[in-house]
């Protein structure tokens, strides 16, 4: 009888042992990714912050209050595509947009990027792939030195091939910084993994999301302080503001909603 | 030239100029746009696979290096190893979720050689029979569970 019941249950759930479920699951994941890609550019247009109110129900008091609080300090935002690379892409675009108007900061940053390559090769990154991503990154910085405007920058960041190259280099910078300072960062890594393993699993692959440790590393290695406004379901009427590192004046601000970063103005 | 082809062109040059021990690209079998490669591997001395020859097939999509290549063992000799199925599929995390664009054909080959070298007992994965029967032709369409890094 027991066997019959199990067979009944399997039949009810539509389970077929000869079917390949992995393939169906992954096809569905891909379809969802494509739907997101279809309706959302990698970096969106600058939009008035008040439109954010419409995304939440008017009864959703926690979020409505927090958006109102956000409006005291900020007026607009850009939506970044939700593909797990939003922190790097948002940081990259937001910062380079500032660089358009600050040539001396651009020179400082170019210097940082230039020296980073040898540092990373010294750490054991394969020089061949590092060079490829490095030269692309420098190429974009050289465009900024010429007469590149916001529209062209937006075009670069919305061209997936180009944009992903920039994201990869930022990921490699973070990985390099964490590995170089592994004595310190090993204290923040869970699951008994080494810093190198953490980097291979949570930093270097595309689409892996970013947390405090990634933000700390990227702001340190680039020398670009960042402010993050945290908007979540926690109690209180205001957003939580954190600056990385906390004793510096931030150059750009990102809005964090659980699992995602957008760019704030 | 597409960025995937440009990148593969550079990888090929580097691999021919400076091939790692036991890794050799079969240049006769390269396709014209470089989207398929055949690489010959030799088991490292002092390991269970010493002197054995293996063939790896690489397939690259247009999103390479942002998407991982598809990599399977082919030919007559599929290594008997706890992470290699008898149809040539390999359970190795850098081939799917831990893939990074900073990796390359060379680093994949070296990881596979090192996976073989650290093996202590030649045997197939415990779920070999059922997996080989139901899996997709493309190992990237399998949602792998990575058990351990010991072998």
Automatic annotation (TrEMBL), chain A:
The keyword Protease applies. Keywords: Hydrolase, Protease, Thiol protease, Ubl conjugation pathway. The record marks 230, 232, 256, 261 as: Interacts with free ubiquitin. The active site is at 83, 86 (nucleophile), 260. GO terms for biological process: protein K48-linked deubiquitination; proteolysis. The keyword Protein biosynthesis does not apply. It catalyses: Thiol-dependent hydrolysis of ester, thioester, amide, peptide and isopeptide bonds formed by the C-terminal Gly of ubiquitin (a 76-residue protein attached to proteins as an intracellular targeting signal). InterPro entries: OTU_dom (IPR003323), Otubain (IPR016615), Papain-like_cys_pep_sf (IPR038765), Peptidase_C65_otubain (IPR019400), Peptidase_C65_otubain_sub1 (IPR042468), Peptidase_C65_otubain_sub2 (IPR042467). One of its GO terms (cellular component) is nucleus. Its EC number is 3.4.19.12. PROSITE patterns: OTU. Belongs to the peptidase C65 family. This is ubiquitinyl hydrolase 1. It comes from Capitella teleta (Polychaete worm).
Automatic annotation (TrEMBL), chain B:
Residues 3-151 form the UBC core domain. One of its GO terms (molecular function) is ubiquitin conjugating enzyme activity. Its EC number is 2.3.2.23, 2.3.2.25. PROSITE patterns: UBC_2 (PS50127). GO terms for biological process: protein ubiquitination. Keywords: Transferase, Ubl conjugation pathway. Pfam families: UQ_con (PF00179). It catalyses: S-ubiquitinyl-[E1 ubiquitin-activating enzyme]-L-cysteine + [E2 ubiquitin-conjugating enzyme]-L-cysteine = [E1 ubiquitin-activating enzyme]-L-cysteine + S-ubiquitinyl-[E2 ubiquitin-conjugating enzyme]-L-cysteine; S-ubiquitinyl-[E1 ubiquitin-activating enzyme]-L-cysteine + [acceptor protein]-N-terminal-amino acid = [E1 ubiquitin-activating enzyme]-L-cysteine + N-terminal-ubiquitinyl-[acceptor protein]. This is N-terminal E2 ubiquitin-conjugating enzyme. It comes from Capitella teleta (Polychaete worm). The lineage of its organism: Eukaryota, Metazoa, Spiralia, Lophotrochozoa, Annelida.
């Amino acid at each position: 009888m027991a066997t019959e019941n199990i067979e009944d249950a399997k039949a009810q759930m539509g389970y077929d042992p000869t079917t390949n479920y992995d393939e169906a699951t992954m096809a569905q994941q891909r379809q969802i990714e494509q739907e997101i890609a279809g309706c959302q550019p990698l970096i969106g247009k600058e939009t008035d912050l008040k439109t954010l109110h419409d995304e939440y129900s008017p009864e959703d008091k926690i979020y409505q209050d927090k958006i109102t609080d956000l409006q005291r300090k900020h007026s607009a935002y850009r939506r970044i595509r939700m593909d797990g690379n939003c922190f790097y892409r948002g940081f990259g675009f937001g910062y380079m947009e500032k660089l358009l108007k600050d040539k001396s900061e651009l020179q400082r940053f170019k210097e940082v990027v230039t020296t980073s390559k040898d540092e990373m090769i010294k750490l054991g990154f394969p020089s061949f792939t590092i060079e490829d991503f490095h030269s692309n990154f420098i190429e974009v910085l050289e465009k900024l030195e010429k007469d590149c405007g916001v529209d062209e920058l937006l075009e670069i960041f919305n061209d997936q091939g180009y944009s992903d190259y920039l994201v990869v280099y930022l990921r490699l910078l973070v990985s390099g910084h964490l590995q170089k300072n592994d004595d310190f960062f090993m204290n923040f890594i869970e699951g008994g993994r080494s810093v190198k393993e953490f980097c291979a699993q949570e930093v270097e692959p595309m689409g892996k999301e970013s947390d405090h440790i990634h933000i700390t590393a990227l702001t340190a290695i680039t020398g670009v302080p960042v402010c993050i406004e945290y908007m979540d379901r926690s109690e209180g009427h205001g957003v939580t503001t954190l600056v990385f590192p906390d004793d510096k004046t931030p150059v750009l601000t990102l809005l964090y909603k659980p699992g995602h970063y957008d760019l704030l103005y | 030239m597409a960025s995937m082809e440009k990148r593969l062109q550079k990888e090929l040059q580097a691999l021919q100029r400076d091939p790692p021990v036991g890794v050799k690209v079969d240049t006769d079998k390269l396709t014209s746009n470089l989207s398929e490669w055949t690489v010959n591997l030799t088991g490292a001395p002092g390991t269970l696979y010493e002197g054995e020859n293996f063939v790896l097939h690489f397939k690259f999509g247009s999103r390479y290096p942002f998407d991982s290549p598809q990599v399977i063992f082919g030919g007559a000799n599929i290594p008997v190893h706890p992470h290699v199925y008898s149809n040539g599929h390999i359970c190795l995390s850098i081939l799917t979720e831990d893939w990074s664009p900073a990796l390359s054909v060379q680093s994949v080959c070296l990881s596979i050689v090192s996976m073989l070298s650290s093996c202590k007992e030649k045997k197939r994965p415990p779920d070999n029979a059922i997996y080989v029967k139901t899996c997709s032709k493309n190992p990237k369409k399998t949602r792998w569970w990575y058990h351990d890094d010991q072998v």
